[in-house]
Amino acid sequence: MSKETPCVAVCMIDPKTRLCFGCGRTLPEIARWHAMASAERLAVMALLSARMSQAGLAPIAGSPKRI
């Protein structure tokens, strides 16, 4: 079974914002990602662009992957 993910394989957490530089997720979100229901994953993904912009982080080029 594949699950959509915003991961772009740049897995580093910004110490100031506690967001991943690559995708904008928090560590708890990353840890729970595969246990989340599809609707919950999609809701988080809908927030990531704005979350990164508000944090002053530039999104890494790339599209969400299917794993």
Protein model, in words:
The chain is mostly helical. The protein has a domain at 18-56. It has 2 helices and 2 strands. It has a two-stranded antiparallel ribbon with strand order 1-2. It starts with a strand and ends with a strand. The model has no long low-confidence stretch (mean pLDDT 87).
Strand content bin: 5-15%
Overall mean pLDDT stands at 87
Binned, the helix content reads 25-40%
Oligomeric category? single chain
Q: Strand order across the biggest sheet?
A: 1-2
Unreliable runs, pLDDT <50, ≥5 residues? none
Judged by helices, strands and strand pairing, the structural class is mainly alpha
Note the run of SSEs as H and E.
EHHE
* Major beta sheet summary: 2 strands, antiparallel
Give the terminus-to-terminus CA distance.
Answer: 8 Å
Q: Number of helix segments?
A: 2
State the total count of DSSP E strands.
Answer: 2
- Report Rg: 11 Å
The 3D shape can be described as: globular
Draw up the topology in text.
Elements lengths: L3 E2 L21 H6 L5 H18 L9 E2 L1
Antiparallel strand pairs: 1-2
